[in-house]
Specification:
Layout lengths: L2 H16 L5 H5 E7 L4 E2 H15 L4 E10 L2 E11 L4 E3 L2 E3 L5 E13 L2 E9 L1 H7 L7 H6 L6
Parallel strand pairs: 1-8
Antiparallel strand pairs: 1-2, 3-4, 4-7, 5-6, 7-8
């Protein structure tokens, strides 16, 4: 497939997830799909992951900041926003709704073969995400080392 077609698959995935259309994953995800970051397999693994996330953040919306492709791989830098309106379970984390609006950033990488996503991984700022939710707080030492107003 062409680089542009591979990028179009990633864009479509994100557009449909933003609409909460999890059914599209059955079309875009290969049966042997693997997500190494979250240890997810197949279309059902991804559907369960997004359902869990959308339960906690029903207004979750991802924006592509940059996207590049080479060979069968696509990378994109993203910004996601959402309001913590529902119960959120993520690994060992269990959080009752806080009502807090959060923003997180990161990079996703994808491998696409014959029009299907066979691998997707993620690297994102979970520390800042948990800080925004009030799960963790910076110590006084950390505030001096990592001032929040530095851009």
């Amino acid at each position: 497939m062409s680089l542009e077609k591979n990028k179009a698959i990633v864009r479509r995935w994100i557009e449909e997830i933003n609409k909460q259309n999890l059914a599209v994953l059955g079309e875009l995800v290969a049966p042997d799909f693997f997500h190494p970051t979250h240890k997810l397999r197949g279309p059902e693994g991804m559907k369960q992951f997004y359902a869990m996330f959308l339960k906690g953040f029903p207004d979750c919306h991802e924006t592509i900041e940059d996207i590049i492709a080479e060979g069968d791989k696509v990378w994109h830098r993203f910004k996601t926003t959402g309001t913590h309106k529902g119960e959120f379970e993520f690994g060992p984390i269990r959080l009752a709704p806080s009502g807090k609006k959060v923003t997180w950033t990161g990079v996703n990488f994808w491998r696409i073969v014959n029009g299907k996503v066979v691998e997707k991984g993620s690297v994102y700022d979970m520390l800042d995400f948990l800080k925004q939710l009030g799960v963790i707080e910076y110590t006084e030492k950390a505030k001096k080392l990592f001032p929040e107003d530095v851009k």
